Amino acid sequence: MLKVHRDICGYCGCCVSVCPEGALELIDAYLSVEENCTSCGVCAKVCPLGALEVVHEKQV
Amino acid sequence: MKSKYDVLVIGGGPAGALAAKTAVEKGLSACIVEKRPAIGAPVRCAEGIGKEALQEFIEPDTRWISAEMTGATIVAPDGFVMQLSSQMAGSKVGYVLDRKFFDRELVWKAAEAGADVAVKSRAAAPIIENGVVRGAKVDFCGKVTNVRAEVVIAADGVESKFSKWCGIDTTVPVREIMSSVQYVMTGIEIDQHSTVFYLGNEVAPEGYLWVFPKGKNTANVGIGISGKKSGAGHRAKDYLDAFVKKTFPHGRTIEYIPGGVSVCRPLECTVADGLIITGDAARVVDPLTGGGIYNAMYTGKLAAETAADCIGRGDVSKKALMAYDKTWRASKMGKAIERNYHIKEYLIKQPDTKLNEIIHSVSKINMTEFTTLNLVKEIIRVNPKLVLELGALAASLR
Ligand SMILES: Cc1cc2nc3c(=O)[nH]c(=O)nc-3n(C[C@H](O)[C@H](O)[C@H](O)COP(=O)(O)OP(=O)(O)OC[C@H]3O[C@@H](n4cnc5c(N)ncnc54)[C@H](O)[C@@H]3O)c2cc1C
Ligand code: SF4
Ligand code: SF4
């Protein structure tokens, strides 16, 4: 599952541009994650601030 | 906002503003929908643009120009400083804009010319009929309205979703997104008329770090690194913080700006039936410099001109709209993107030792005018062996 750390996110859209599934959308200052996210982690890698994290089910 | 326009523009950045303004000047009805509550804010840009490039579209105005640049400085990985004086920088010197005001001015100009503008209004889905884009569902504070159009111009920036919803793959490869952070800093010692670029794998892997002055003691201090090089503990922000701590320990940060810049090739095709894609959404940023303001304005204007033509002839099919795609690819901008893509691909593969060597040799050249084209020609002249390494690049210069 993809977790958005909203306290860190600066709503820039960098992550949205690399998501192969089109699962992210920036709604002004709110980053939304849709159900088709595959937890591939590509977005978490490129986020300049480190606001995204793939959390494995066990840890939830 | 009405329920039908000749042209519906998604996004109120430089691409969208120029598209809407041009459309109404051509006698069409047009509306810009912008999802943010305020045009131009927050800023996602280092705000640099060439003087001549800017003047192609608008007369410079001190209300939205922060500073005028008369030179540029490149700092090599080994710390060697190469200065490009004003004579060398020639006509290529530029401005550092104040994009909050600049973007607003462009949208004002579009509105003044007769375009409608709707802010806090997000295109939430396209309207597609028989495979043809016919408008968008626009969400304003939870209320969704169908807005129909002969042609939709997608100008929705790096975070573009509209074209993806229309079935076009706009995904930027991880290695070709510049993961970026910028601080607007004040109370720092800078040359207020020169931009500074720092290169090197220690400073900014597969990217660069910039200091763009915005006046006395104030500058945009930012960095872009390849998404491939980004990860926990070594993100753009980590690199920038290390640089700032060392270089501007007493500076104060008055604005905190993350962002993404695509440095990939443009979309394979930038039109579909009833749809034209412009600016960052079309991935037409210069892959070497990361500059996209000019390219956004250029493609926005061209998109509206093409739309006007095609609407006038009653044919908004992909085939008809292809005139747009063909024209920008053949333009000076299109050619520069192709050439600079090769230069970028070459430079990012070089170790710091090689970058040092190149910068040292280039600094000895007496260049009459500093342009990337002249730069490459000189690099090749000084290192003839490079022609082999540069392959496709060298071919594109002939
Ligand atoms: C850190 C950084 C530094 C940069 N430095 C420079 C520089 O020095 N010089 C330069 O030339 N370029 C620079 N760029 C690039 C430049 O900012 C962009 O190329 C330029 O803003 C592109 O203009 P645009 O109109 O295509 O997109 P944008 O300016 O991004 O505008 C797109 C607009 O569309 C809106 N939008 C998105 N989706 C929707 C939707 N569904 N509905 C309604 N509205 C929507 C957005 O809110 C946004 O306002 C930089 C970029 C970054 C991130
Ligand atoms: S890249 Fe990071 S900071 Fe930018 S919108 Fe995505 S999560 Fe937020
Ligand atoms: S984890 Fe992968 S699929 Fe999920 S939002 Fe991020 S990039 Fe998209």
From TrEMBL, chain A:
Superkingdom in the source lineage: Archaea
Signal peptide (from-to): none
Keywords from the UniProt entry: 4Fe-4S, Electron transport, Iron, Iron-sulfur, Metal-binding, Repeat, Transport
PROSITE patterns per record: 4FE4S_FER_1 (PS00198), 4FE4S_FER_2 (PS51379)
Domain 4Fe-4S ferredoxin-type: 1-26, 27-57
Name of this protein: 4Fe-4S protein
GO MF: 4 iron, 4 sulfur cluster binding; metal ion binding; oxidoreductase activity
PANTHER family: ADENYLYLSULFATE REDUCTASE, BETA SUBUNIT, L-ASPARTATE SEMIALDEHYDE SULFURTRANSFERASE IRON-SULFUR SUBUNIT
Any Pfam family hit: Fer4
